[in-house]
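Researcher: Let's do a round of design. I'm pasting the structure tokens now; please hold your answer until I've finished.
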């Protein structure tokens, strides 16, 4: 019974949180509530809720070939969606809202049109996929103990939570509708159109600039990777669970997707990292979706790379003669060492390991390998003093790499952020580190 309450409450909250950000679809629902009444606006919300449910199913059911395509084409989809939204905003700007007031309130064709635009505008925003993955990890929506009937109930709860949100929004906006006359509706219509137009321009700018940045990086830097980690001092005042949520807004997000040895190890689980630093700590939030989950090792400085594991290798400064290696399995067990270029590594003592903050979404109890569709996250806070770095407000240059592995699982894999060109899996190759800059 405990699992049922967990999956229902988590699903409802996920559905509400997915719908709550007041983006273009929220503006559209408000506009339609005021111009056309509550029912057409609610149909728009139902379309948006179904789109959110579709993304949730793609994420949770492990349809990697679809989600990988969406993530790979994220910028292109963002550009296309922004162009469509610009066209719609211009149409809405020229439209006379008083005409909508004269139309019958029960035209079925209009309702299907409202439903379709709600679905398409929401589905055209691929960034929602990352948000859903993060929510799944935060609320432990995919756990090894769950069965198929738990997930049926959970996905129904996600859809229900989204519907509850749109029901409430349309209810309260409809209550205020009586206070709007024809002129105020016309003015509000123009305001909503302008907001949608600005949102679309921002999305178009981000999509085009991101695409150009990727093209420029490939053309001028070849295999070299560069990561800027933003300065966010307020993170020190939060718990690590709260840090994970804060990083969603202000952190640098990137993927670990270099499949360096595809012939022997072709599996590529989705791995997304969000990073920031406070001047005292480097905060890393690793978010993973995989088909097998393993956490056998529960003692620090044990071989956690055999489990479902993420890694951060870093060398302060431009030299790669020596570096620190931090390996963390999905329950937060750490294996940390100081290594030299000759691959001689000395494990960090327990008193230093205690200074490294860790939070695991699946808890800290060990378990044998389980098969299914899992989304999990671990947050790591590394003190800069361990790395010998003193931040004084100026950018700090480092070299490093981020890795994802699971050596002893049924789907062993070896992914990295910066590509590694060796015949066999070997993350301890500082010559392939990328540039990391603490802003």
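Researcher: That's everything. Go ahead.
Model: Designed sequence:
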């Amino acid at each position: 019974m405990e699992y049922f309450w967990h999956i229902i409450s988590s699903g409802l909250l996920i559905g509400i949180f997915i719908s709550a950000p007041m983006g273009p679809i929220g503006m559209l629902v408000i506009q339609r509530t005021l111009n056309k009444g509550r029912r057409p606006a609610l149909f728009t919300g139902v379309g948006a809720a179904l789109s959110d449910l579709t993304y949730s199913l793609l994420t949770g059911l492990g349809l990697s070939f679809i989600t990988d395509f969406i993530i790979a084409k994220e910028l292109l989809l963002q550009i296309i969606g922004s162009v469509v939204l610009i066209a719609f905003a211009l149409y809405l700007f020229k439209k006379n809202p008083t005409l909508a007031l004269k139309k019958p309130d029960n035209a079925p064709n209009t309702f299907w049109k409202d439903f379709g635009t709600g679905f398409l505008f929401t589905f055209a925003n691929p960034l929602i996929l990352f948000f859903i993955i993060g929510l799944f990890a935060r609320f432990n929506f995919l756990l090894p103990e769950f069965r198929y009937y738990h997930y049926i109930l959970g996905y129904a709860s996600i859809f229900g939570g989204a519907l509850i949100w749109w029901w409430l929004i349309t209810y309260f906006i409809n209550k205020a509708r009586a206070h709007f006359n024809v002129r105020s509706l016309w003015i509000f219509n123009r305001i909503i159109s302008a907001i949608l137009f600005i949102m679309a321009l921002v999305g178009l700018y981000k999509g085009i600039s991101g695409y150009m940045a990727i093209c420029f990086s490939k053309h001028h830097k070849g295999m070299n990777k560069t990561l800027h980690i933003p300065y966010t001092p307020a993170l020190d005042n939060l718990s690590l669970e709260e840090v994970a949520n804060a990083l969603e807004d202000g952190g640098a997000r990137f993927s670990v997707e270099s499949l360096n040895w595809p012939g022997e190890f072709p599996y590529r689980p989705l791995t997304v990292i969000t990073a920031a630093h406070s001047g005292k700590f480097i905060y890393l939030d690793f978010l993973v979706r995989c088909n097998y989950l393993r956490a056998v090792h529960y003692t620090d400085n044990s071989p956690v790379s055999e489990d479902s594991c993420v890694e951060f290798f870093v060398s302060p400064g431009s030299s790669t003669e020596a570096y620190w290696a931090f390996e963390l399995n999905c329950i937060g067990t750490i294996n940390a060492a100081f290594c030299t270029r000759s691959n001689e590594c000395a494990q960090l003592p327990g008193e230093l390991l205690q200074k490294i903050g860790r939070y695991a979404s699946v808890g800290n109890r060990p378990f044998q390998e389980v098969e299914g569709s899992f989304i999990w996250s671990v947050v790591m806070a590394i003190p800069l003093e361990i790395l010998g770095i003193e931040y004084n407000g100026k950018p700090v240059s480092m070299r490093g790499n981020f890795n994802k592995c699971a050596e002893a699982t049924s789907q062993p894999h070896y992914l990295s952020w910066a590509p590694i060109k060796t015949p066999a899996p070997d993350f301890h190759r500082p010559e392939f580190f990328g540039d990391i800059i603490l802003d």
